[in-house]
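Every protein is a chain of amino acids, and every chain bends into a shape of its own. The protein below has been through that process, and both of its lines are reproduced in full.
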Amino acid sequence: MSDNQPQHQNPYDPYTHPSPDPHPTTTPLHGDTPGYAPPATHPGYDPQTAYGTPYGQQSYDPYMQQQPQHQQAQPDPQHQHPQQAQHAQQPYGYDAYGQPQHQSAAPYGQDGYGPDAYGDDAYGAGAYAAPVPAAAQHHGAHQGAHGAAHGTTATAEPVPAGHPEAEAAAPAPAAPLKPNQIARAEGRSPIIPPGIQPAALTALLALLLALAAPVARPVLVVPVVLLQAVTAAGWFRLNGMWPARQGIALAFLGGVATDVGLLATPHEDAPLVAIGTLGVWCLLVIVLQLRNRSSADERMYALTAGLTSSALAVLASGHLAADPDAVVVGAAAVALATLARALPLPGPLTLVLGLLAGAGGGIAAGQLTGMGATAALLGLAAGGCALIGLRVASYDYPSKFVHMTAGVALPLALAAPAVYVLGRALG
């Protein structure tokens, strides 16, 4: 190829177009090169600032923010729109990747992502705040109204301790647990003795029987009827059936019917009257349960409770059919046995003391009635029946109501058959 001919150079050949010297020693002046015009640059433009330090010459810090090298003149904020003035107060800089970035971010909660952006909704802070009592809100509103009237600002304050509204808003104290509830919670024995108060009531009722027996049978009916009423109610309550008005009323009426039959017949016919009344009342109890729409188990429980309560009410009328002297001896034995059993002593010891007290009461009452030493046997039997009644009234975590009904009546009701039988045999 001739040297005078122009050589066609490859525009993509790096060897034919060497890159200019990155560090020229001389800078051409304006006008030295024909047609040369300096490039238009932005005031304050610096490539080093815009694009950062070349890769590999500085450590990577993603949180580093480059500060502007030159602050532009800020326009007068009085002649700008508020939004423009806000952006004007937040100059732009560049991060390590050359991306524009605000130098000052909006405070947390005012940028549309904080809790202030949503308010106290279901996910805000107010959703889990503790409720303020109505009395405290009323008190705070009163304080705020007072401050507004006098030019001051007041916040809701807690109600004073002695304020009536504070007493009304305060939660009611928990009721103390009953002895049967404490025993059930602690897993202790379900046998809880009635105690001294039911024993005292039993002794009082026994005293009424002993005082009314020598007078006349119609007078003796009064304490006997009271005993039958308490027996019927106590047995249903002991079995956990309350209220059971129809069953209690039916059992009580069975005892009253027996009393009427005993008053209308001689002493020798007492067993027939009791058995006949009990048979009729068993039929009535079955008829009553036919109207029961409960489950089969509940009907069975109600049937057995009704039959047993009626039988106990009929047996309690044995004091009315027994010999008056035997009633006095039996009542004295039951009273002393129940009082001895209620003493705060170990259980086996009180059991022995109860039997001895029953026998001693029989001996003492026999001396007054003329029965002699044979009254000790009657007293021992009556005292033993009374202790059995106390044991039954103590079963299955009984409540105080059970103790004041079944615990009072069962000792005398269970002693009635022994008083009648032994009174006729020993008299």
Notes: Strands lie at 92-94, 100-102. The first helix runs from residue 47 to 51. The radius of gyration is 52 Å. The chain has a mean pLDDT of 75.
